[in-house]
Amino acid sequence: xxxxxxxxxxxxxxxxxxxxxxQALWFNVMDRIAPHIRVTDHRVSPSQRAxxxxxxxxxxxxxxxxxxxxxxxxxxxxxxxxPWTLDDLSEMVHLSTKQVARVFADAYGKTPLAYLTMLCGLxxxxxxxxxxx
Length: 133
Known about the structure:
The chain is mainly alpha-helical. 62% of the residues lie in helices and 0% in strands. The protein is built from seven helices and no strands. Helix 3 crosses helix 6 and helix 4 (67-78) runs parallel beside helix 7 (112-129). The radius of gyration is 25 Å and the shape is elongated.
């Protein structure tokens, strides 16, 4: 593809003067590459699927729960009324916010805040039914 050589040569020179030619060359390169690029319209990693769709426990794979996920679950269950944020939870277990969400979703099938929402809904339901909380 001689287009790449010309594109590189133009990018080393005054790029502003030859912008339109560089753009045309770039589109030629992308026309060749585009048929080989595959993009899915759905999420594919297990942690992304766990956060986007509710999964029955029998469908999930069994794996040991990480201590950090268990600590987050215990904190959420112990203080439901606390206004939790991912920053609070990540500081508590010394992980990044994305890592906390991923580890928790891998262990429990939902993000920490979705789990907290479920706990709040369960608490409201038990309160209405007259069962102990």
